[in-house]
Design a protein that fits this description.
By secondary structure, this protein is α+β, with helices and mostly antiparallel strands. The protein has 3 helices and 5 strands.
């Protein structure tokens, strides 16, 4: 179980942050924490996006674009150095709960700074209201 003190430092970060529970037996990892910036900027609550599958449906509602994001992720994963790189970073358009598309650099931790068994995903906003 995630200790609340391990996520406390995310509360003061201006970028949206999700903390995800790693499960080696499934690709559908559980989303267990979101900071206030995530709630304010992206808008989805943990009850609406309890896991990766729900997140993908909300963030990337177009099935073709989901495939694009998946391919971007796979390309980045193939090109990283697991010993040297701290994050996998892709730039994508995300549908917010407020029904506007925003562009983010999405940085997913490779080595947890939170606690063993969890990792953070940080969203750096590149532009707002993408057409």
């Amino acid at each position: 179980m995630l200790n609340p003190s391990s996520t406390k430092h995310f509360d003061n970060i201006k970028q949206p942050v999700l903390v995800v529970e790693y499960n080696q037996d499934s690709l559908n990892h559980k989303l267990v924490y979101q900071n206030n910036s995530f709630k304010n900027i992206i808008g989805w609550s943990l009850s609406e996006i309890p896991d990766k599958d729900h997140w993908w449906k909300k963030a990337y509602p177009d099935a073709q674009y989901q495939k694009v994001v998946e391919n971007l992720w796979e390309i980045e994963m193939e090109s990283i150095d697991l010993d040297a790189d701290e994050f996998v970073i892709i730039t994508v358009n995300i549908m917010t709960k407020h029904n506007n598309m925003k562009r983010f650099d999405v940085k997913t931790e490779l080595k947890s700074s939170v606690t063993k068994g969890y990792y953070a995903v940080i969203f750096d906003e590149v532009s707002t209201d993408v057409k």
